[in-house]
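Reviewer comment 2.1 asked that we show a complete input and output for one of the modelled complexes. We chose the zinc ion case, as it is the one discussed in the main text.
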Amino acid sequence: MIQPRPFSLDIGSAPESAAQFDHRLERRLSSLRGQFSDAQAFAEKMAQGDPVAYEVLEILRPEEQGELLSGLSIVHPGKVGREYFMTKGHFHSVRATAEIYYCLRGQGCMVMENESGDWDVQQFLPGRVVYVAPGWAHRSVNTSPTESLMTFFVYPAHAGHDYATIERNGFRKLVVDDNGSPTIIDNPRWSAGARTHV
Ligand code: S6P
Ligand code: ZN
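Response of the prediction step:
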């Protein structure tokens, strides 16, 4: 068992010092297969290699109530067709758990939706906090053409992850590049009928 002990992290001055983190997860574009609306653009991008779309640096703690999990999410710049590189996105398995994201670098947005039919998109700018309310699925999108989007996240350690619900239909909304401007559009693949509660 990891004994509860206080600790501190330097994320303001040296967020790239990965040595502070216990675990590094790398997600390549292939792990987002089926999530981009332009299948041909996805195939073309994959033919050029399978780039790292994002990384997650985590502090490991016991996944139990009372603890908090925290770390850095780093979404690299890139596009598949008109859609920007993004995270897979998920609901928390324990729906009644929230999450805080603090943007350190870059620009982008957090796409969110709940199971009551509501959706929301909040902008990420350095210094801005985005609050993901309990019951809201969330996906980070990097809208910068050149810079990685770096955010610090913290959430209850017993939250768990439900990726399957999002993998089935994606999010209701997509963020696409419209002549250089990030624009929110409906996801043609999303259908309310196919959505099931877990
Ligand atoms: C976990 C938290 C983040 C994400 C990370 C990658 O609850 O929201 O650590 O895991 O931003 O996103 P995803 O959707 O691949 O887990
Ligand atoms: Zn989360």
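The domain at 18-197 is CATH 2.60.120.10 (Jelly Rolls). We note this here for comparison with the apo prediction described in Section 3.2.
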